[in-house]
Amino acid sequence: MALARATAYHEPHVPKDSPERIATLDGLRALSIVAVIFSHTLGTHMLGGGMVPDPDRLRVLADLGVRTFFIISGFLITTLLVREREKSGRISLAGFYLRRTFRIFPAFYVFLGVVLVLATIGWISVPRDDLIYAATYTMNFHAEREWWVGHLWSLAVEEQFYLLWPLAVVMLGVRRALIVALVGIMLAPVLRIGAWICWPEVRPLTDQAFPFVFDALATGCVLAIGRDWLETQPLYLTLLDAPTFWLLPAAGIVALSISTVWFNLGAGVTLGNIAIAMAIHRCVRHPDLRVGRFLESRMLVWVGSMSYSLYLWQQLFVDRHSEFWANAFPLNLVLAAAAAIVSFYLVERPVLRWRARRRKT
After folding, report:
1. Is the peptide bond before 330 cis (omega within 30 degrees of 0)?
2. What predicted TM-score, i.e. pTM, was given to this entire model?
3. How many CB atoms lie within 10 A of CB 232?
4. Distances from the Cα of 77 to the Cαs of 19, 182, 303, 339, in angstroms?
């Protein structure tokens, strides 16, 4: 159901001294990408048989991972936009789009170039339409696609969010943009269920097309804008700081796992998004607690900072439909990690360092 074929997306590496860097969020990204890769790995060659759970039953892990990434993205981007407006009195759209370009495009188009080469020499099969949708960040409106580029739908959602949301904040102001986000949260379940009932042709896209999944991003946006107000509400704080708080995210996961269409596309998704957002809020608010310290551990922060490259490259190796040696467990995980490390250190970081030097000159 919703986001069932999900793959996570992550903001590329952010320098340690950047205001965009929140170690707790890196830890959450690490857990999210691990959930996605674990879900994809189940059933891969050499990891099949009765001892392995049915991969279809654990799709909620990938769903949980991608939702967490979306909500983190909405929260972080909105926080940065609001800070910029408070600091300088305005938001530079040109500056925002330029930063996104440097952080997203280089690693993405290197990956897409490798896919094109592999398709050209016949190692994988990728139709031309798939490549066009991928290159134009519209994969979330293209349901029939090959596995190798299928995960790029979530990146398309993010790019569309980057294009539209800062523009809404600039043109409408923060308060009116908040109303837009709240309306999006309320409207998306209606659109999903309505499309499922009245427009069968788009059913495969009810967990991918931007109008149907914007509510996850919008939930993070609302958290960013309303965070200060929420932290003045006694009832909310009592719930957020309660020792039994983690029962709430657990209930959200249960809601996401219910497969009944009308519930999954409707209240299930909304409840799951809210539960994840509250978990993010608690972790960011209390980084000194046990969970926060765990999320800020060196290994998790490192994995989280590299999760964009992991997101891109795991798809080539973690494929349960292939018996090719590179897709066999556990070599597939080793190769996916190696490709991500190469991308991270030879593409992402050098480009960002070059961008930083250019800004200083």
Report:
1. yes
2. 0.90
3. 8
4. 11, 17, 21, 27
